[in-house]
From TrEMBL:
It comes from Talaromyces stipitatus (strain ATCC 10500 / CBS 375.48 / QM 6759 / NRRL 1006). This is Holocytochrome c-type synthase. Belongs to the cytochrome c-type heme lyase family. PANTHER family: CYTOCHROME C1 HEME LYASE, HOLOCYTOCHROME-C SYNTHASE. Keywords: Heme, Iron, Lyase, Membrane, Metal-binding, Mitochondrion, Mitochondrion inner membrane.
Length: 299
């Protein structure tokens, strides 16, 4: 597995312990919490196969996905669930939980994906989890830069990408200590929404450029889109919600046959502040080089 990207990072809410990446009604990649799974009676599992009435219209989540083996299943699938690194906003100290391969397969069957190779489900879950971890790491980096305000963010961005990476690595070590001591709150995932049918404005622009200049900008549209809502602690001590847009692209496979994915992750332009953050993040390196910063360091 390989992940590549720049701010495109290569690399899903309200039910407890649910998988942090959630897709649209047409996608199978949701499973509820293990607690919910334990509490639901077995007879409800068969009733839930009817579909639409059992889906939460706010986030398109099934209310229950069984860990039981499917009637037509011929391959044993693990029921263990992996804990993500993504903090929950509604339960301090807890992390979001990914679906087990068995839950993933049952969810796919309920969505109508009956031709899914059973022996490929474990690999699908691994890729699913890996992409989500990569997406969260990129979001944490954005938060690390701008959570303390635009002035602090610009002081970081204006030093160029290479220096920014070094400074963030140092700051991350300090933040981990402060979080452990309770002096600082880490960003948390509040909720999410899968929107694979909705091209983001940026993706729409890139598709238009690809139509006009195929040699330079030609690319397939993203195969999926997520909106993640993150709780940010501001310098004043309050928290605010920041929406991030994630476009998922697939690239040419590696020579070894491994798939390649590109994740384009950025704050949604819901406020003027978010627009400035994006401008600073992507323009800081240009400013650094244009002002001679790179040349001065090379002397």
């Amino acid at each position: 597995m390989h992940v590549a990207g720049s701010s495109s990072s290569g690399v899903e809410t309200p039910l407890p312990s649910a998988c942090p990446v959630k897709r649209s009604p047409n996608s199978p990649f949701y499973t509820p919490s293990s607690e919910t799974t334990r509490q639901q009676p077995q007879e409800q599992a068969s009733a839930n196969t009817s579909g639409k009435s059992k889906i939460n219209p706010l986030n398109y989540m099934f209310s229950f996905i069984s860990q039981e083996r499917a009637p037509t299943q011929t391959v044993d699938l693990p029921v263990e669930r992996e804990i993500s690194s993504i903090p929950r906003a509604d339960n301090a100290g807890e992390k979001w939980e990914y679906p087990s391969p068995q839950q993933m397969y049952n969810a796919m069957l309920r969505k109508g994906y009956t031709d899914t190779p059973q022996d490929a489900v474990e690999s699908m879950v691994a890729v699913h989890n890996f992409l989500n971890e990569g997406a969260w790491a990129e979001i944490v980096e954005w938060e690390q830069i701008f959570a303390k305000g635009l002035k602090s963010g610009w002081e970081k961005c204006r030093k160029g990408n290479e220096n920014l990476a070094i400074e963030l690595a140092k700051e991350r070590l300090l933040c981990e200590k402060k979080i452990e001591d309770g002096e600082e709150l880490e960003p948390c995932l509040v909720r999410f929404q899968g929107r694979p049918q909705d091209l983001s404005p940026k993706a729409r622009i890139m598709q238009t450029l690809g139509w006009l200049y195929p040699a330079k900008f030609g690319t397939e549209p993203p195969f999926d889109r997520h909106d993640w809502y993150v709780s940010r602690r501001t310098p004043s001590g309050t928290t605010k919600e920041v929406r991030y847009v994630i476009d998922y692209y697939s690239g040419p496979p590696e020579p070894t046959g491994e798939p390649v994915f590109f994740l384009d992750i950025r704050p949604a332009v819901d406020t003027p502040t978010a627009a400035v953050e994006r401008l600073m993040r992507w323009g800081g390196d240009v400013w650094y080089r244009a002002s001679g910063g790179q040349a001065r360091e090379n002397k």
